[in-house]
Design a protein that fits this description.
By secondary structure, the chain is an all-alpha fold. The chain is built from ten helices and two strands.
């Protein structure tokens, strides 16, 4: 056991200290398992002669679901152990997944071709741009395409971007300076330095962004099932 693991083993886990977070946390575990059902729906033997054709959109969705599965696994494990330096940034990575499947939902195979090209999206022309416009697929543009379906996205994007970079969040969970100039802190970080509201925000943001990814993938899977059954 590492020094870090030994240190944390002597403290209550996040859910032990804050049982009110348990419902959302358990919901994320259910979402984690849901990834397998979606992959089966997209590429399982559901079509004629026990086969299922794969399209460009499927390649994107399967790749996103694989990444989402890994991110969610890391989040579930690290969040409950107070490792917010690992858990919080995964929210921003899940938002990236959501932005891409939201574009895929609106632009279909054209978006799939762009996403599979491997070229930087920020230099790619937006397939949904008006004729004559040269908008590129910056994060801001991707958010515009997803905003109507996910009105909370801009807030989560902004918050989760702050969790990626070293910021005041990391400072105030490490040490405290009183008005009198007295400094106190602990290494590793003191769990009492993590406000409940912060933990709640991180968990809520991960749940919302994951649900968005799964919802869009489910719509694709349902559409594919109906098409194959006709």
């Amino acid at each position: 056991m590492s020094k870090y693991s030994e240190y944390r083993a002597n403290e209550p886990m996040v859910l032990e200290r804050h049982p009110a977070l348990r419902p959302d946390y358990d919901h994320l575990i259910e979402d984690h398992d849901s990834h397998f059902n979606l992959v089966k729906a997209l590429c399982g033997t559901n079509g004629p002669h026990n086969t299922t054709p794969l399209f460009q959109c499927d390649f994107v969705l399967l790749s996103v679901l694989n990444r989402s599965l890994d991110l969610l696994d890391g989040f579930i494990w690290s969040f409950n152990r107070w490792n917010l330096s690992t858990a919080a940034p995964t929210v921003r990575m899940q938002v990236d997944n959501l932005l891409r499947v939201a574009l895929l939902f609106k632009a279909g195979p054209v978006a799939a071709e762009v996403l599979l090209s491997g070229r930087p999206l920020g230099k790619e022309r937006d397939p949904l741009a008006s004729p004559g416009k040269k908008n590129t697929l910056t994060d801001q543009r991707l958010r515009e395409h997803a905003r109507d379906r996910f009105p909370w996205l801009d807030l989560v994007y902004e918050k989760s971007s702050g969790w990626i970079h070293f910021s005041s969040v990391h400072i105030w969970v490490t040490m405290e300076i009183t008005d009198e100039g007295q400094i106190s802190g602990r290494f590793p970080s003191d769990i009492s330095r993590y406000p409940f509201e912060f933990l709640e925000q991180v968990l809520w943001a991960m749940r919302k962004s994951t649900a968005g990814v799964l919802d869009i993938a489910t719509e694709f899977a349902d559409g594919k099932r109906h098409a194959l059954s006709d």
